[in-house]
Write a sequence for this structure.
């Protein structure tokens, strides 16, 4: 099974407007309008070359307004209920959404418990979009509570495109968090910290964190990518595309073409994700 651990969609009625806003805020081009149907079509396209494409995409909703988190979670739960009936061995593309949370929600312990009760396997944090530094006490509480409830936490890390001069999640802030807690299911997106890979190599590799490969294709050298994989361990790397920002097929081929052993490539493309998700 190949799992894209980092993708995004929006409800059909707001997807196009959301794309326009994201492009204005970041300056990065969007690969496609991020709807449920466009993502599943992208997954089908990934099978065209050799028949071995993306079977499951993990959706990572980002809550930028604490008052809207629960409506976002209801949309995400609807996606999960729809795809839960598709057998695991089916050739149909499947989606699985994580839950959304915001550090300013109030009773964070209860929020995490509610997310768990809604059936989600994890949450997504985005320090830049949520205007909160990663080593903020509320983020530390969220991660702790998530760990207590056996939930995975995925965090945007490094450069976001919205404010290069104030990156709210850097390798050094990640180290600050690790001095206080030792999470087992914490994923730092973008190979530890987007565009900050030298610092990642020197500081947080080998610290028990997972990295995903989202948005690194065409931006990182093969040599540095291989060093990061070796230093952090291939068993702690998860394939991700960051669709719609990147093309799923191209990012999958990037991993397939790295000079990895067959076993390590299989771990990164899906086996690590299957184990972490408990599938």
């Amino acid at each position: 099974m190949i799992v894209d651990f980092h993708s995004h969609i929006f409800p059909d009625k707001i997807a196009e407007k959301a794309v326009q806003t994201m492009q204005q805020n970041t300056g990065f081009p969007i690969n496609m309008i991020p709807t449920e149907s466009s993502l599943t079509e992208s997954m089908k396209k990934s099978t065209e070359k050799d028949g071995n494409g993306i079977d499951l995409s993990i959706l990572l909703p980002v809550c930028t307004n604490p008052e809207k988190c629960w409506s976002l979670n209801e949309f995400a739960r609807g996606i999960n209920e729809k795809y839960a009936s598709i057998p695991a061995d089916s050739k149909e593309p499947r989606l699985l959404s994580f839950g959304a949370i915001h550090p300013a929600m109030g009773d964070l312990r209860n929020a995490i418990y509610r997310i768990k009760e809604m059936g989600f396997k994890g949450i997504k944090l985005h320090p830049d979009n949520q205007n909160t530094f990663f080593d903020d006490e509320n983020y530390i509480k969220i991660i702790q509570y998530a760990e207590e409830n056996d939930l995975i936490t995925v965090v945007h890390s490094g450069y976001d495109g919205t404010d290069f001069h104030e990156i709210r999640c850097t390798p050094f802030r990640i180290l600050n968090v690790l001095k206080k807690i030792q999470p087992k299911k914490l994923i730092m997106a973008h190979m530890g910290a987007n565009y900050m890979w030298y610092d990642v190599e020197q500081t947080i590799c080998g610290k028990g964190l997972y990295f995903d490969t989202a948005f690194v294709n065409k931006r990182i050298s093969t040599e540095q990518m291989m060093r990061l994989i070796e230093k952090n361990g291939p068993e702690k790397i998860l394939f991700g595309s960051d669709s719609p920002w990147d093309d799923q097929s191209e990012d999958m081929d990037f991993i397939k073409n790295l000079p990895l052993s067959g076993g390590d490539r299989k771990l990164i493309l899906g086996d690590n994700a299957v184990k972490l998700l408990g599938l």
Observations:
- The chain has a mean pLDDT of 94.
